[in-house]
Amino acid sequence: MIVLGIESSCDETAAAVVADGREVRSSVVASQTAVHHPYGGVVPELASRAHIEAIGPVVEQAMADAGLSPEAIDGVAVTRGPGLVGCLLVGFCFAKAWAYGRGLPWVGVDHLEGHLHAVMLAADAPPFPFVALLASGGHTGVYYMEGPRRYTLLGQTRDDAAGEAYDKVAKMLGLGYPGGAVIDDLAGRGDAERIVFTRPYLDKTQFDFSFSGLKTAVHRYIQTHPDTYRTDQADIAAGFQAAVVDVLVHKLLHAAAVHNCPRVVLAGGVAANGGLRARLTAEAAAAGIAAHIPPLAFCGDNAAMIAAAGYHHLQAGCRGALTDDVYSRNTR
Ligand code: KG4
Ligand code: ZN
């Protein structure tokens, strides 16, 4: 089954063609970073307008890159939520019309479920069950994945998402938006032991997260070191990243141990983090657990992951209705 995936929940307009939920035939992502960079964050109205301009060409490009005509598509999967409503509506309405006009089945897909399926696009896609850590700009949680369409949330952040903490720390240091990759890069050049931040484990046996206290600790450090924080940027980034990575890796591996599960998976934009990928790979190997990490191209927002998740819903006979609407918040 060949699925056209469409994603427009935040600041990336994306389309992809994926066969059988695994084989990526094309994946196009038009980023709006340049549009939002001057504002230090995503401006919803500008994002919606940029999606409207990009959606048609992006879908056409994905079809052209796959070398397919629309007749070769068996179904359409599109992000329904959570995200910015104006942004979601652009992709959602476009997908409805694209499918309806061609008499094709289509289905709305949860954005988080999409991220959790990104690893299925990797050459070493894991078998079920597995425990997954989803860390993005809007969400951070641990999931037990029993099979396609069968997963349980074990715990999630009580305040900021991990990616959000990265973005806010980058902003405090004057490094612009989005901040994750910049902090990651800086951290690689810093000393993680010179400026140590308390690890926000909460209860070490549970799977909830909290990153707002860590963000505040970085803010306090900057305020109390006005003369040196600029020259110490790399050490601050390294100290902050070490605290985030310690907590994420501990909770993920602990969840795998509690559920007696031999496989763990990373997902979401923060899964692109070099420090996190390296630490998880090393610690999982030491614990005898297989770590599966999606290729970089499928960690951040993309439509191939939406097609991969939507494939299972379409196969199960789920169909969207023309009266379906998008949703802004996570309802699971
Ligand atoms: O999954 P994603 O593209 O969008 C959401 O669904 O939120 O995640 C975006 C988030 C941003 O907060 C960004 O700063 C973070 O992922 N991010 C990173 C890295 N690359 C992107 N965080 C840490 N290290 C990175 N290398
Ligand atoms: Zn995302």
TrEMBL record:
Cofactor(s) listed in the protein's UniProt record: Fe(2+)
Which cell locations does it reside in? Cytoplasm
Catalytic activity reads: L-threonylcarbamoyladenylate + adenosine(37) in tRNA = N(6)-L-threonylcarbamoyladenosine(37) in tRNA + AMP + H(+)
Q: Which SUPFAM superfamilies match?
A: Actin-like ATPase domain
Could you list this entry's UniProt keywords, alphabetically sorted. Answer: Acyltransferase, Cytoplasm, Iron, Metal-binding, Transferase, tRNA processing
Q: What is its EC number?
A: 2.3.1.234
Q: What NCBIfam families does the annotation carry?
A: gcp_kae1, T6A_TsaD_YgjD
Name of the protein in its database record: tRNA N6-adenosine threonylcarbamoyltransferase
Q: Which organism is it from?
A: Desulfatitalea alkaliphila
